[in-house]
Amino acid sequence: MRESNGYAFSLRVPSLRIQRGEKIALIGESGCGKSTLLDMLAFILRPTDMEDFSFHAEAGIDVDIGESWKKRRRNRLAALRKAHLGYVMQTGGLLPYLSVYDNINLSRRMLGMPDDGTVRTLARELGLSRHLHKLPSALSTGERQRVAIGRALAHRPAIVIADEPTASVDPFAAEKIMSLFISMVEEMNITVIVASHAWRHIKQLGLRRLAHHTRKSSDGRMTETVVSG
């Protein structure tokens, strides 16, 4: 529950189970709680109340996220995000003072992973090889989004979360980028959760749409979204 200037927003998730390798879509207009849910799934935003919230990254890694929040183990949650999650923001979120190569390599560098050619392979698949030594400011919007996708995939996380990753590019470029993105996560068997407005193209790519509905109180001061899947 969030309140601001006399208005309140509530997001409820009665039941949600996402299997390894699934492709999930959260479709809806701005203000329906898509980004809020993604931030909760990325262990960034703490739910007000929770009964069961667990994360199974791989064999031997099964974490009670709810317990970690309740015991304020933020360092534990940050470590899980760094090792097992990739996040693609609407605007890319690239560091402007790092080259394309260093932006893509950032997650690997933070984890102490070796320079084994992964970054250059991703750059080639994303059509970025000739831009590796450029700064983000020298790229088009679509190219910056492809760099952000490369950064999210570089350390081969268990899950990649993408918050409207093609919202800032034209529809033709958006379809090309999204198709490339989904084909890459499929090849790596990475779970992907995408928030988007564009259900038509997302459906064509085989993503499972989460059920949700949003309702407002009669005076318009309370908005509640319920998500399940």
UniProtKB/TrEMBL annotation:
<dbReference type="GO" id="GO:0005886">
    <property type="term" value="C:plasma membrane"/>
</dbReference>
<protein>
    <submittedName>
        <fullName>ABC transporter ATP-binding protein</fullName>
    </submittedName>
</protein>
<dbReference type="InterPro" id="IPR015854">
    <property type="entry name" value="ABC_transpr_LolD-like"/>
</dbReference>
<keyword id="KW-0547">Nucleotide-binding</keyword>
<dbReference type="GO" id="GO:0022857">
    <property type="term" value="F:transmembrane transporter activity"/>
</dbReference>
<dbReference type="InterPro" id="IPR027417">
    <property type="entry name" value="P-loop_NTPase"/>
</dbReference>
<dbReference type="GO" id="GO:0089705">
    <property type="term" value="P:protein localization to outer membrane"/>
</dbReference>
<dbReference type="Pfam" id="PF00005">
    <property type="entry name" value="ABC_tran"/>
</dbReference>
<dbReference type="GO" id="GO:0044874">
    <property type="term" value="P:lipoprotein localization to outer membrane"/>
</dbReference>
<dbReference type="GO" id="GO:0005524">
    <property type="term" value="F:ATP binding"/>
</dbReference>
<comment type="similarity">
    <text>Belongs to the ABC transporter superfamily.</text>
</comment>
<dbReference type="InterPro" id="IPR003439">
    <property type="entry name" value="ABC_transporter-like_ATP-bd"/>
</dbReference>
<keyword id="KW-0067">ATP-binding</keyword>
<dbReference type="InterPro" id="IPR003593">
    <property type="entry name" value="AAA+_ATPase"/>
</dbReference>
<feature type="domain" description="ABC transporter">
    <location>
        <begin position="1"/>
        <end position="225"/>
    </location>
</feature>
<dbReference type="GO" id="GO:0016887">
    <property type="term" value="F:ATP hydrolysis activity"/>
</dbReference>
